[in-house]
Amino acid sequence: MTALIENLEADHKRFRRYLVVFNEEVRNLAQSDGSDYVLLNQIATYFAGYPDELHHKEEDIIYARLATKARSRRVELRNLQQQHVELSQRANHFSDIVSMILNNEQLPIDKVVEESVAYRNILTAHMSGEEETLFRPARSLLNQDDWWDIEQAISNLYAEEINYEKARSVLAIETSLDKYLKT
C-alpha cells in the first residue's frame, strides 16, 4: 500500500513548505524586521502537535513492521524512530518560546534564533533520513499482507489513542497555513 507512504511523503513536503515560512519569520526576528509572531506561533503550534498526534504514530507502525523485514537496518530505523522524541521535545520547547514572546516576555533573540535553527536542522535531516531509510525500503520490502496489518494497526490506533480535539486543532492550523501560503 504505497498510498500510506505517499501520504507521509506529502506531509514531509508540507512540513518543508512550512519551514520556508518559519525560516523567513525567524530571519525577520533575527534582523528585528517585524516578524509575524502570530504566524510563527501557528507554525510552532502545528509542529508541536501534528507530527506527534498523527504523522509519527503512523511512521512508528511502519518502522516496527519494516524492522522485521530489514534486519540489517534495525539500528538505523530505531535511531530515526527515537528521533521522534527529540523532535517532539524541541517543537514543544520552541512553541513555548513563541508563546512567551507573545506574552511580552523578554527573551534573547539570539537564543530564540538558535533554538529555531536547531529544530529546523534536526527536522530537515530527520525527514531526509526517513525518506531514504523508511519510505524507500518500505515500498520494496513490505508486501500486501504487511500493508494490510499496518492499515489495521493504524485504524486501531485512531480508534483508541488519537486525541481528536488536538488533531482537529492542528488540522485547522494546517488549513490556515495552507491558505497563507496560497496568498
From TrEMBL:
Top-level lineage group: Bacteria
Protein name as annotated: Hemerythrin domain-containing protein
Pfam family, one: Hemerythrin
InterPro entries listed in its UniProt record: Hemerythrin-like (IPR012312)
Sequence ranges assigned to domain Hemerythrin-like in this UniProt record: 4-136
